[in-house]
Specification:
The chain starts with a helix and ends in a 19-residue tail after the last helix. Helix content is 80%, strand content 0%. The chain is globular, with a radius of gyration of 20 Å. It is mainly alpha-helical. It has 17 helices and no strands. α4 runs antiparallel to α16 and α5 packs antiparallel against α6.
């Protein structure tokens, strides 16, 4: 069962309560997901892993979180299930409980794969519900949803610094209990969604309407535009992978900070990504998403090029600015892509969330090998040039005018 264009007009006004619950559940989900990266220094030390093995952990997690997302999005486009969100959180809970107590490298890979599957179930369906609850303010709704995820991602390292680093990896099990809180948050959303599905099904039976395949551009042009967007995501997430996976190691190696202090600096960067995300969507609603995408990726280049050549305090400041500017791109990118294929919201959300995770995972593995071979500092000298790929945003048409 899919939702038609006229059904979406009848979804009601801006559903702030539902969007708040979705954002809060996104916060919980991504906070639990980010614990994986936050405990990298402990796992690396306890199991005597190389940077390449750390990169492999990230790759397994990101691939499991990316490959399943388009599949889940495509399935949910045809068969919406109100209780899919708590099911995804259950996979995350299981994976984190396993991560807390295993001492073999292959079991670490299994645990992060389960956490990744939980993410692949959550994101496409939650993105669909965000669009349906937006009341037409798609950019603002997506930013509210996305900022919850970014805040959760920033709180993960903070929890690791306060709860895990001083007391040991076993405390990941305590943090995993937050998944049960996340399931409780999702219950009102599931009930709202179930009620809406019944209403839409009744309307379609009364009107006898099918799905309306409305696209703003022809199929060949749509494919070309999506290709341009993929290049932009490629540039964004290679650089983000270098910071998410190796920023703590960079600070420890170059400036001699402690593991606990490096977690606080990582929190500063991730908090900046949450703040920037909140602006990208509503600005795109007002001026057009093309200009937000262009400015946020290309505008990061001066700061990324400067960061490898400065001291600790300027590095922290520049990482904050990079996170703030670069993170504003994704809400605009995702809504832009959804507007290209408005009848495949789940599929397109799964593709772009999945592609983002997949690129980040592959980049983490490649950068890990690169760090082993040439040193962690040289990694940041090379990836500093990736935001320059933001120049290709000039090829995007302005959907606001269309």
């Amino acid at each position: 069962m899919s939702i038609t264009a006229s059904d979406k007009k009848n979804t009601g006004s801006f559903a702030l309560g539902i969007l708040f619950a979705l954002s809060l559940s996104h916060c919980t989900n991504d906070m639990l997901q980010s614990v994986i990266m936050a405990v990298y220094p402990l796992v690396k030390s306890e199991l005597a892993l190389s940077f390449a093995q750390v990169g492999l952990i990230t790759m397994v997690y990101q691939i499991s979180a990316s490959v399943f997302q388009p599949v889940m999005g495509m399935v949910m486009d045809r068969h919406q299930k109100p209780w899919s969100l708590p099911m995804g959180m259950g996979f995350t809970f299981t994976g984190l409980m396993l991560l807390a107590f295993v001492h073999q490298f292959w079991l670490v890979l299994v645990s992060v794969a389960l956490v990744g599957i939980g993410s692949s179930i959550f994101h496409p369906e939650a993105a669909r519900l965000t669009a349906l609850a937006s009341g037409g303010k798609r950019g603002l709704a997506q930013s509210l949803f996305q900022v919850g995820g970014n805040l959760g991602g920033s709180f993960g390292p903070l929890l690791a610094a306060l709860v895990i680093a001083p007391y040991g990896r076993q405390n990941v099990g305590l943090i995993a209990l937050l998944a049960l809180v996340g399931m409780c948050i999702m219950l009102p959303v599931c009930r709202w969604y179930r009620a809406r599905l019944k209403e839409w099904d009744e309307r379609r039976r009364q009107r006898g309407e099918g799905l309306r395949h409305e696209m703003p551009y022809s199929t060949p042009k749509t494919v070309f535009i999506i290709g341009v967007i993929i290049v932009l995501i490629f540039s964004k997430y290679i650089y983000m992978a270098s910071l998410n996976s190796y920023y703590t190691f960079y600070l420890i190696h170059k400036f001699g900070v402690s593991v606990q202090d490096s977690q606080f600096y990582l929190f500063i960067f991730l908090f900046a990504t949450a703040a920037g995300t909140l602006l990208g969507g509503p600005i795109g609603d007002r001026i057009g998403r093309k200009y937000v995408i262009w400015g946020s990726i290309l505008g990061t280049a001066p700061f990324s090029l400067l960061m490898p050549h400065v001291g600790l305090v300027p590095t922290v400041i520049l990482s904050f600015l990079i996170g703030f500017i670069l993170s504003s791109a994704f809400p605009a990118i995702l809504v832009y892509a959804q507007e290209l294929l408005p009848y495949k919201i789940g599929l397109i959300s799964g593709i772009f969330y999945g592609f983002a995770f997949g690129i980040a995972g592959i980049a983490s593995a490649v950068l890990g090998n690169f760090a082993d071979e040439y040193g962690i500092e040289y990694v940041y000298q090379v990836v500093a040039f990736t935001p320059l790929l933001g120049l290709v945003a000039c090829l995007l048409p302005n959907l606001k005018e269309k």
